[in-house]
Amino acid sequence: AFLWHKVIFKMPSDAAKRRQQQKKEKKLALDKKRIADKGKKHVTSSIPTGGATPMLDDKEKEGSFKGMSLEPCDDKINEKPPKTGASLVSQMKDIQISDRSCTGVLASHTESRDIHIESLSLTFHGAELLCDAKLELNCGRRYGLVGLNGSGKSTLLTTIGERELPIPQHIDIYHLKEEIPASDKTPLQCVMEVDEERIRLEAEMEELTKMGDMDSERLLDIYEHLDELDASTAETKAARILHGLGFSHAMQHSKCSDFSGGWRMRISLARALFVKPHLLLLDEPTNHLDLEACVWLEEELKRYKRILVLVSHSQDFLNGVCTNIIHLFKQHLEYYGGNYDAYVRTRSELEEHQMKRYNWEKQQIEHMKDYIQRFGRGSSAKQAQSKEKVLTKMVAGGLTEKVVQDKVVSFSFPDCGGLPPPVIMVQLVSFRYGPDKPLVYDRIDFGMDLE
């Protein structure tokens, strides 16, 4: 028997021929481009002016790499001095290298006065501080940022202040983090130096006016802000703020170089209050203030109409200023309405409810596991299987976590025993900042003892 195989040869169409020809032409063009690029890499970049490109012999080729001549050098002559920590930090700032890494998505409108950022993640030197968190800052609210030491409160403020998050450009930010540098300017002059802010607001006002958006809240806010920065009333407002922070009339007209770091920090705080940015970030603003200045600052911040984010260890200060509390806990941001006392009450109630739910779920799971173990076989096997399905659904749906209390550190000091008075005695103490400055302390006597 012979098997005949019928073979049919199909000729390619004209369209297929053209496609194949185009592919060949593209491949040929790419090959030519690769060859040309390889030739460019071997051409030296050091071409003498006014002459032709020199040809390299074999020895010169050995001493060159990608067009750059590698000449022998004396290591001792060209040796660079070792870099100190300060120089490395300055170089990091110059080339904008940050020890933080953050990501986030702007969820609010680009022209909104509020700031809503979702999927916020923040790491510091590789340590994860925030993971898939949500940042919500609404205009007219004053937020107190609380959390354990080292949880990342100051790092979050720095990240916002440096605009490492997607914050709209029309929102101006002032982050109080360092004192005014020592100079021959007076505190009054330093506070009133807001020319850049005034120019920025005027440019934004012109842009909104050209767009025809005459009734927008942002434009009305700019008008109000420019009125506050008016040169005719600026000196009076700046003097009022400095006086509230403890500066006398003579101190307001002294040189900044005559003040200590704490007083220059007060000047920086006064400038922030004078500028009144849309987003004001304060990290422990009461550290350099006395009691009277703290009371004045609390009353001043109560009237802040824009967005304020505050970090402070003073519960009384948070109670007097804040309208909302942000709790940085377990790499997330939890929001509470009210001041610090309201936050403590609300959190305690939520944790109590969470703990009850956790104990109920724990009892249910133990009961079902015991039932399944006892009646897994025999006549009650179907009921045991049903309970096993319920248990699987509970676990898959997510169980309530056990409440984790904040870490508390307690100190104990041993009793030193009885010491006869006086333990410390100081007599006739006088102090002033300079020979031409008034006395801060004048012949003060005081002592300390155990009684």
Condensed summary:
Helices cover 43% and strands 18% of the residues. The chain is an alpha/beta fold and 451 residues long.
Tally of helical segments: 15
The low-confidence runs, each spanning 5 or more residues with pLDDT under 50, are 1-10, 40-81
Strand order of the largest sheet: 7-8-9-6-10-11
How many individual β-strands?
A: 13
Structural class: alpha/beta
User: Helical proportion?
Assistant: 40-55%
Order of helix and strand elements from N to C terminus: HHEEHHEEEEHEHHHHHHEHEHEEHHEE
> What's the story with the biggest beta sheet?
6 strands, mixed
Inertia-based shape: extended
Strand % is 15-25%
Radius of gyration, taken over Cα atoms and rounded to an integer in Å:
36 Å
Rounded to the nearest angstrom, the distance between the terminal CA atoms is: 127 Å
| Overall pLDDT level | 78
Keywords for this entry:
451 residues, six-stranded mixed β-sheet, three-stranded antiparallel β-sheet, 13 strands, 43% helix, disordered N terminus
Q: Can you walk through the features of this model?
A:
- With 451 residues, the chain is of the alpha/beta class.
- The chain has 15 helices and 13 strands.
- The strands form 4 sheets. The chain has a 6-stranded mixed beta sheet, sandwiched between helices. Strands 3-4-5 form a 3-stranded antiparallel beta sheet, covered by helices on one side. A two-stranded antiparallel sheet has the order 1-2.
- A hairpin with a 2-residue loop joins strand 10 and strand 11.
- The N terminus is likely disordered.
